[in-house]
Amino acid sequence: MDRNGRSEQLDADILNSLAELITQIMAHGERLAERMSFPTFFIKALHTLDCPMAMKELGRRLHCDPSFVTVIADGLEKRGLARREAQPGDRRIRNIVLTDAGVEMRQRMERELAALMPWSRVLDTGEREQLLALLRKMASPGNAVAPDYVAASRPVPAGEVDVAASTASAGLA
């Protein structure tokens, strides 16, 4: 196999392995949500709500429609995990704020989810540090996808997994 062929095969193998890993992560998230008796998308919402946040900003970070943010906020409020407050300085903007119970749930969920992740179980500390460095290198701002990128612009060949679309549709992106 020539150098270009090996490079292409390596890229394909990396993509396939990442798709498998994302599938495992999503399955762990789904099982955790089921054990905690809430919808899977609450995991991403709780993780994202690290400070009071405008509902519009939460929707942007979750890559979802504003009407779905309302569903999320309603569900979190119903469970006593969050409340809506007027934003200081502009009462038209509604912030979602985690309650004390929401902060506790967020911390518990993140501890439990982290313990389930493959890197927590199969990599030693040095390997996890290497993985983190590589992930940060790949996720650096210079490598970010442009906001106007349209995933649908590239057709996905049969049998190939569109990892970004799968992750986003599962609410984990």
Topology at a glance:
Elements: H1 3-35, H2 41-48, E1 53-54, H3 55-62, H4 66-78, E2 82-87, E3 90-98, H5 100-116, H6 118-122, H7 125-138, H8 163-169
Antiparallel strand pairs: 1-3, 2-3
Helix pairs in contact: 1-5, 3-4
Describe the model.
The protein is 61% helix and 10% strand. With 173 residues, it is mostly helical. A three-stranded antiparallel beta sheet has the order 1-3-2. Helix 1 (3-35) crosses helix 5 and helix 3 crosses helix 4.
Based on the model shown, name its key terms:
single chain, Arc Repressor Mutant, subunit A, mainly alpha, disordered C terminus
Short description:
By secondary structure, the protein is mainly alpha-helical.
Provide the residue-averaged pLDDT. Answer: 85
**Alpha-beta classification:** mainly alpha
Could you give me the name of the CATH homologous superfamily?
Winged helix-like DNA-binding domain superfamily/Winged helix DNA-binding domain
Order of helices and strands: HHEHHEEHHHH
Total domain units: 1
Distance between the termini: 35 Å
Number of helices in the DSSP assignment: 8
The low-pLDDT segments are 150-173
CATH architecture: Orthogonal Bundle
| CATH third-level topology | Arc Repressor Mutant, subunit A
Q: Which strand-content bin applies to the residues?
A: 5-15%
Rg of Cα set? 19 Å
Assembly classification: single chain
Question: What topology, given as strand order, has the largest sheet?
Answer: 1-3-2
Bin the helical content. 55-70%
Top-tier CATH class: Mainly Alpha
